[in-house]
Amino acid sequence: MSKLVNYEWSKFLKASESYSLKVNEKNIFVHTTPLVDFATFSCEGEIEIEVISAVLISDAKVQPASQGIEYSIDGKSLKFSISKPSHLMVTIEGLPELFIYANPLEVDVPDENDENVTFFKAGQVYDVGRLTIDDKDNQTIYVEGGAVLKDGFNALRCNKITLRGRGIFDSSFVKGRDYRQLVFEGCKDVTIEGVVSIGPPAWNTVLGMCDGVYVDNLKTIGWKVCSDALDIVGSKNVVAANCFLCGNDDCVAIKSVSYSNGDGSTPRIDWRGDVENVEVRDCVMYNAHAGNVMEIGFETQTESIKNISFKNIDVLCCHGHGGVFTIHNGDRAVIEDILYEDIRVEHYFDKLVDFRIMHSRYSVDKTRGSIKNIKLKNIFCIPNIYNSLSLFGGQGDLDGVKFENFYFGEEKVKSLAQLNGFAYNAENITFE
Asked: Residue 110: is the preceding peptide bond cis (ω within 30°)?
């Protein structure tokens, strides 16, 4: 048995000119952005998906490759099936990529009459300005599948706050590189679940000086430079799982920094603090032309950043001059106990591994910190032909980078030379 939940969208939304989509023979609305097109629905059990292209299909891909999805092509039609909720990317030559968000079914939908619930209903585009909740606890913002909010959200010093639903936040009309879209500052016990967030001119989803955060099934699309997907800044005890993170800058950035200037969309408190106990797992990542994929840095204005893990990640692409596995320690922090495990890298251009201590254009501290005890385990990379580099060390001490079961295709990496790697002030780089 399978179940499909389609969403009722406003008739005023612009539909894709490149694709139409059917799921279990029902039409699904396809949204369009300057970077990719996307469709979103909820499902359970095995479902049949048909992508109808605007052009004859000569070549196509369905990713992540780890899903092992087999498909058939017939003229302008591409068909395949999935047996569980999944985040997918379909590539057809000559067209923008298509993201398919097959979400799990929702449970415990909040009561729209609850005084602690702000409820946005399907079928409408809301132009209500930037939502802001300050110093309030036990609040839920629910954006129903089919609802679009034309702006962003701020929460300041809130405990037990939830942002959830299957709807869309869209700030593509906003100008100014300081505008951050979904911002949680000084909050505790935060849940972000299910929403789609697109088009910010700067960071998409920000956790600034928060403690106890669960991010589940977040989908982001950013096409402007500086549109990081998820920024974890001075925060502790964070889990991000089952997300599809796409940005024209870092997919995940872990930092400690202050930009406070009182603007409603930018920090209103100091975000400098130790970062610890962060887990990013079971995610798909798409890095456009700026930034990096899994980044720690550049701003590291604190004493300690530690116990960070990235697990079971599919990296679809790293299109620009950044890197896939990156630590850029530009300030005084000791960065240690970092784990990258069970990660599959399908495409990258420039740098694969980039662990450096440096005085960067973002640096504030007068002294440089260090990098210690990094492990990369069960990493599988599709080999590329672009003379990519890996860099280690710099203007401080890097001590302890262990590669365990790190592969280029069928070839196990056993030396720095195989990574086209360069090291300076770096010790104990080992391969097993």
From this structure: no
Last residue of one domain, picked from the residues 61, 82, 104: 104
Q: How many CB atoms lie under 10 A from the CB of residue 415?
A: 10
137 and 215 inside one domain:
yes
- Residue 91 near residue 51, CB atoms below 8 Å: no
32-61 pLDDT, tens digit each: 999 999 999 999 999 999 999 999 999 999
- The contacts of residue 74 (CB under 8 Å, 6+ apart) are none
One DSSP character per residue, 172-210 reads TT---TT--SEEEES-EEEEEES-EEE--SS-SEEEES-
Does 270 lie in the same domain as 158?
yes
Residue 417 dihedral angles phi and psi, to the nearest 5°: -60, -35
Q: Is 349 left (phi over 0), alpha (psi -120 to 50) or beta?
A: alpha
**Which residues constitute the domain of residue 267?**
117-431
Residue 121 and residue 260 in one domain: yes
Closest CA to 324 of 412, 406, 396: 406
Distance from C-alpha of 228 to C-alpha of 181, rounded to nearest angstrom: 10
Side chain identity at 226, as an amino acid letter? C
Residues ≥6 apart with Cβ < 8 Å to 348: 315, 317, 318, 323, 324, 381, 384, 386, 388
pLDDT tens, 271-280?
A: 999 999 999 9
Task: Report the pLDDT averaged over residues 171-193.
Answer: 92
Share of the chain above pLDDT 90, in %: 92
pLDDT tens readout for residues 14-40: 999 999 999 999 999 999 999 999 999
| Any domain includes 46 | yes
Residues 130, 63, single domain; the answer is: no
Number of domains forming the structure of the chain: 2
Determine contact, residues 379/340, Cβ cutoff 8 Å. yes
Tell whether 337 is covered by a domain.
yes
Sorted by sequence, the CB contacts under 8 Å of residue 233 that are 6+ apart come out as 206, 207, 208, 209, 254, 255, 256, 257, 271, 275
> Rounded to two decimals, what is the model's pTM?
0.96
